[in-house]
Amino acid sequence: MSFSITRLRIWFAVATITLVVVVTGVYLVRRYEQRVLLHIAAKKLGVEIQQSTEGFSLSKSEGGRTLFKISAKKATQYKETGRAALQDVSIVVYGRDGSRFDQIYGANFEYDNKTGNVTARGEVDIDLEANAQGPKRPDQATPAELKNPIHLKTSGLVFNQKTGLAHTDESIEFHVPQANGSARGVDYDSHTNRLTLNSEIKVATLGPTPQNLVAVHAVITKEPRRAVLSHVTVKQPDSTITSDTVTIAFRSDNTIEQIFADGNVEADNNGVNSYQVQAAKANLKFGADNDLQLTTLSDGTRFRSSGERPMHGFSDRIFVHFDQATQPTNIRLADNAHIIEEPAGSGPSHSQQRTEIVADALDIDVRNGKLPSKAATSGKAQVNIDQRASGNQPPTTTVVTAGRFVADFSKQGHINHILGQPNSRVVSSAAGQAERTTTADKLEVLYNEKGELASVLQQGNFRYHEALPANQGERTATAEKATYSPSDELLRLTGSPRITDGGMSLTASLVNINRHTGEATADGNVKSTYSQLKEQPNGAMLAASDPIHVTAKKMIALKNGGAATYSGGSRLWQGANTVEAPTIEFNRDQRSLVAQGTGQAASPVTSVFVQKDKDGKITPVNITARKLTYVDAERRARYEGGVTARTTDGVLTADHVDVYLKESGASTSPTAQPGPSQLDRIIAQGTVVLAQPGRRATGNKLTYFQQDGRFVLSGDNPAIADAEHGTVRGESLTFFSKDDRVLVEGSNAAPTVTHTRVSR
Q: Which residues are listed as membrane-spanning (predicted)?
């Protein structure tokens, strides 16, 4: 997020220019107020001189110091009309302490004794100059050097001795080293010390950044010491500032104390990154050296900027602090501050977002008077992020809150880092999706060199919550630390992470959640518990309502379907039913699993069932294989690849084995503890070998019925080798675990063959 500070120093230029006009008027009227010209013309010319005088000169002193000196090459008194005329007049004003060297000169002045009017016939020039060394030098001494005098020129000036009013309808021009200016029509009241510039006020500054000030009207008063300009416009090559009224307040030494702008205050910049600032009022405060210190914008303050990332916003008040070089150092948006950054015109979809900062107050530190270096909120604060739709993802809205936000900026004005603490909270929502909420003690947001979001970190008591649809419960997560990366939309949880998803809970050393696909991965000491299960009377191994537990080194889970894959020493159990394998794929909703071995004898799939032996006792059946597939609704466990089933009275091996289990049924006692699933029958196929004490059976297919302990062996010339009775072959051999009976079936194509051992 880049940031450009408006050149508020332009108001300082306005103040300086207006000050020139004010000082000019003050000095002009003060000289008339002293009535230098009027007293001389009235008393000396109007009463005492009734003739033409060559080389006229007159001065007035007080306390050993000359206040002023007036000279004229010629003075003429007209007895008939009572008027007096002075030609080629020069007036020098020294001041009471000799600290001034102001000069007023013109070709012709006239005084009318009857009306009391003093009229300048033609142009009048005025040079205003301070003389700091004057009090230390001899009386009437000319300054050793004239430094930057203020020069004014006007004509048609009329001053009435009786009313104390001065007026001209003509233009007045002034020149200073920093600016030139003009106005049309001047009125001055010497009794109230009120100077009015009637119209067409124009000021043009000089230098590398010229400025032009235009005002319709101006009033300058001594009490209070101020100047009021109306309909003011200040223009620079690439910017304009306007206001309905500008009031400048002066100190006793004529330095500017404050400038007030009231009504439609607006600053517009039309540069490469244009901006606009609007407010109803503005207040500029100055130091003793006319240095701008503070600017306050108030009442409906709004701003807008263009560029790669357009920005706009508003605040009830904006304060701008300046350093001694009148460079802005701090900007404070107070009372309902809003800053909105619009999406970039181009770029990847994940950067197409609208960001809004809302706070009771926002302080921005400024680097080199141009770009932000740091920003901090005060009071209530939140960040609103609107993400545009991308691909199949709907538009999302994210609201971030914290006790306080602090942002650091790069040298280019882009945000580097945002810190929000304490009590950080992030709420994300999208159409058709449930709200997702995260909380933590601290929130950190990092940006890359382009100002794009790089990562989001929440640390300290992290919590995540999301309501699931259709009464499926909720998805929650806890951890010490959570890190989110927008580039791959991956949320990484560390520090004892724990996740619950509907009826499933998960703990691990590390958990990653893909916010785009919903896939979750866990690594290190993985343990899952599936609870809130309904009992399935028609099921078997996974039919109980007891929780199903899974442990492993790693886990991958899909968002939909309740499926997860566990790897690395995986173990799944419900009650006494247990499956162990290097990899277990488990589907909670279907109550099914696929267990995979590594293809090595050292890492097979293992599981345990039970059956009743010939004595009626419950005995275990341990089965190992390279793969196990089980669907609880079918009550069938299919083993493939190097299958071995061990019981207390034998070992069965085959290429693949289907184990059918008995229905679990509903428990008749609430305190009964369910045991392992019980065998119903087994079907083994492919290189079948059954080894029992004293007996060995081989064939291509073996079916075992647990109910009566019956084995049916068939396929590929089945045979039973008995240590006592010899070998029996046939098309089908049926034998029992409870006794030694063998039923043999044969055909013409495959006759029955019996080999009997004979003791010698």
A: 12-29
- Which domain-ending residue is among 270, 294, 329? 270
Write the CATH number for 595. Answer: 2.60.450.10
Residues paired with 492 in a beta bridge: 483, 512
Statement to judge: residues 517 and 640 lie in one domain: yes
For residue 180, give the nearest of 206, 218, 198 by alpha carbon. 206
Owning domain of residue 212: 7-35+162-270
Task: State pLDDT tens for residues 396-411.
Answer: 888 999 999 998 888 8
435 shares its domain with 453: yes
Question: How far is 367 from 344, CA to CA, in rounded Å?
Answer: 24
Compute the 3-state secondary structure of the chain and give helix, strand, coil in percent, each to the nearest 5.
5, 60, 35
Hey, which bits of 42-139 come out as E strands?
52-62, 65-78, 83-93, 102-112, 117-120, 123-128
Q: What does the DSSP 8-state code read for residue 387? A: E
Q: Which residue has the tokens 């069938």?
A: 636
Q: State residue 49 phi and psi, 5-degree precision.
A: -105, 125
Distance of alpha carbon 128 from alpha carbon 261, whole angstroms: 29
Spatial neighbors of 744 by CB under 8 A, at least 6 apart, are 728, 730, 732, 733, 734, 752, 754
100 DSSP 8-state letter:
B
Q: Which residues, including other chains, have CB under 8 Å from residue 561's CB and lie 6 or more apart?
A: 587, 589
pLDDT tens digits, 102-127: 788 888 888 787 887 878 888 888 88
Same domain? 209 vs 325: no
DSSP 197-215: EEEEEEEEE-SSS--EEEE
Distance of CA 329 to the CA centre of its chain: 22
CB 178 within 8 A of CB 207: yes
Q: What distances in angstroms separate CA 739 from CA 613, 615, 647, 684, 704, one per listed residue?
A: 12, 11, 17, 22, 15
The pLDDT tens digits of the residues spanning 49-84 come to: 334 566 777 777 888 888 778 788 887 877 777 788
pLDDT tens per residue across span 504-546: 899 999 999 887 787 889 999 999 999 888 888 888 888 888 9
Residue 532 CA to chain centroid, in angstroms? 41
Q: Rounded to two decimals, what is the model's pTM?
A: 0.69
